[in-house]
């Protein structure tokens, strides 16, 4: 059976500045750089982001390899901590301007669309320590200023901008479940941070509308969408899944596409005494600065059941898990290395949800991928990693994307996480995701079987 895609489909791959560039010539530490400095043992094998995949030095060769595997789109991010010298004043660093200009120009020269994200978890640590990071409206203002600088500097050539990557992961990681610095557990602050990031995104969009003169230019946000499925059809489990979807998906989807937070969620947060502080002016700004385009990161679904009494009583002040518990569905198909369920059909559910409930806004898969450890197990005699599991993973996800498109979904592209094996937050280099492997000791990069396969798919705009 042939699976076909629309003309001009984006065949891409995604990374981020902090995970690929390395800290070479960088001015400021971000929250992860800092965390690694003070607690290296929190990171797998004690490997930090200092070298990453050396993109700062090898961007030319890396982009050439991306071309070789057929990519027509490359999503990465501009590091605030690299671009801005004086965080309060917003003065730019000339070396960083040179670097990002060179990356953008190289992509364009190779016929690859540069898709730029502004914040990929990498808040400059000074803003966390001095102002409380995303708890602070001052940081919201500084972000809008940083965004404006980017639009002025690079907006003539970059047509596709994204404000934040996965805001929910910042909220979850830094304020609820302790996997992002500063590892606070505080439900009320978490809710305020969700709001402040929404406001920061809207302010950046407002700045874009003023600055942009490129008729093809558009701006959006990248959300990690994780459809939540109930363990059973009992009213309690259905209610648990309903709340999980409100919190994990509808919160940022509603705010960014409609300028409205879901009223039902607002009422629950209000009743629980944790609703954010906002002003009428801010709410108006959010309402009038919605996105043009949506990036969807999808890795795994969420299975939930009604909360147990113990998890209720564990909730120190307020936790979203007051309303649901994780459910380990027997027999579910797992990527055991990463510990995530593989359920490609969820992408179809996402496609129809966006079509039916979010005005069928144009969207693309901005990240999807399979992290596998010790991939050298799969090296063949020619030195190529035979990652057939990744080919199968991509095929199955693309199948459901294509089906969604056939049913009217407005999806225009697919990006694998990631083009070249890169550094990953706390997991460092444990799980590899790339089309291209990277020997972290020698920085020798080699195309995997999936990269060769993808080239053909991208060229033919279809696969069998
Ligand atoms: C996403 C992030 C990426 C990337 C990916 C893989 O949530 O946007 O930055 O890291 O997950 O996850 P991990 O690196 O934890 O294996």
Gist of the model:
With 464 residues, this protein is an alpha/beta fold. It is 42% helix and 17% strand.
Task: Describe the protein in words.
Belongs to the glycosyl hydrolase 1 family. This is Family 1 glycosylhydrolase. It comes from Carnobacterium inhibens. The termini are close together. It is globular and about 60 Å long. Helix 9 packs across helix 12 and helix 14 runs parallel beside helix 15. It is α/β, with parallel strands linked by helices. The strands form seven sheets. It has an eight-stranded parallel β-barrel with strand order 2-3-6-7-8-10-15-17, surrounded by five helices. Helix content is 42%, strand content 17%. 50% of the residues are buried. The longest helix is centred in the middle third of the chain and has 25 residues. It is built from 16 helices and 21 strands. It has one domain: Glycosidases (TIM Barrel, Alpha-Beta Barrel), CATH 3.20.20.80. 6-O-phosphono-beta-D-galactopyranose binds next to loops.
Q: State the shape.
A: globular
Structural class: alpha/beta
Q: Rg, please?
A: 21 Å
Please tally the helical runs, counting DSSP H or I stretches of 4 or more residues. 16
Overview features:
464 residues, alpha/beta, eight-stranded parallel barrel, three-stranded mixed beta sheet, 21 strands, globular, binds 6-O-phosphono-beta-D-galactopyranose, Family 1 glycosylhydrolase, Glyco_hydro_1, GH
């Amino acid at each position: 059976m042939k699976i076909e895609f629309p003309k001009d489909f984006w065949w891409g791959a995604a990374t981020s500045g902090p995970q690929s560039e390395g800290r070479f010539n960088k001015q400021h530490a971000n929250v992860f750089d800092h965390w690694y400095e003070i607690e290296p043992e929190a990171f797998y094998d004690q490997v930090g982001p200092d070298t990453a995949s050396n993109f700062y030095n090898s961007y030319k060769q890396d982009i050439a390899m991306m071309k070789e595997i057929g990519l027509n789109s490359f999503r990465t991010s501009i590091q605030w901590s690299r671009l801005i010298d004086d965080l309060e004043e917003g003065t730019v660093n000339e070396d960083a301007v040179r670097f990002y200009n060179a990356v953008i120009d190289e992509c364009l020269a190779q016929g690859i669309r540069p898709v730029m994200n502004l914040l990929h978890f990498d808040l400059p640590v000074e803003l966390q320590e001095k102002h409380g990071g995303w708890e602070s409206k001052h940081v919201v203002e500084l972000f809008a200023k940083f965004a404006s600088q980017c639009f002025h500097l690079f907006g003539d050539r970059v047509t596709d901008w994204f404000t934040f990557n996965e805001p929910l992961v910042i909220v979850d990681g830094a304020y609820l479940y302790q996997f992002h610095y500063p590892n606070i557990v505080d439900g009320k602050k978490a809710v305020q941070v969700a709001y402040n990031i929404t406001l920061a995104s809207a302010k950046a969009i407002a700045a874009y509308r003023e600055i942009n003169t490129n008729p093809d230019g558009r701006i959006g946000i990248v959300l990690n969408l994780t459809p939540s499925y109930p363990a059973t059809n009992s009213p309690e489990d259905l209610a648990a899944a309903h709340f999980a979807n409100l919190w994990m998906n509808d919160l940022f989807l509603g705010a960014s596409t409609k300028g409205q937070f879901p009223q039902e969620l607002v009422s629950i947060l209000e009743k629980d005494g944790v609703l954010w502080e906002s002003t009428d002016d801010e709410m108006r700004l959010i309402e009038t600065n919605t996105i043009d385009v949506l990036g969807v990161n999808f890795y795994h679904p969420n299975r939930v059941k009604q909360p147990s009494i113990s998890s209720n009583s564990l909730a120190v002040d307020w936790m979203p898990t007051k309303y649901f518990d994780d459910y380990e569905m027997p027999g579910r198909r797992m990527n055991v290395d990463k510990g995530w369920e593989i359920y490609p059909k969820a992408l179809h559910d996402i496609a129809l949800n966006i079509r039916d409930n979010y005005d069928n806004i144009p969207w693309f898969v901005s990240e999807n991928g399979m992290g596998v450890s010790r991939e050298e197990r799969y090296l063949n005699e020619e030195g190529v990693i035979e990652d057939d599991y990744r080919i199968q993973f991509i095929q199955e996800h693309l199948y459901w994307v294509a089906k969604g498109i056939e049913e009217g979904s407005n999806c225009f592209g697919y990006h694998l996480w990631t083009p070249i094996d890169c550094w990953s937050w706390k997991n460092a280099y444990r799980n590899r995701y790339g089309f291209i492997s990277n020997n972290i000791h020698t920085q020798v990069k080699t195309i995997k079987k999936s990269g060769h396969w993808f080239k053909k798919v991208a060229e033919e705009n279809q696969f069998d």
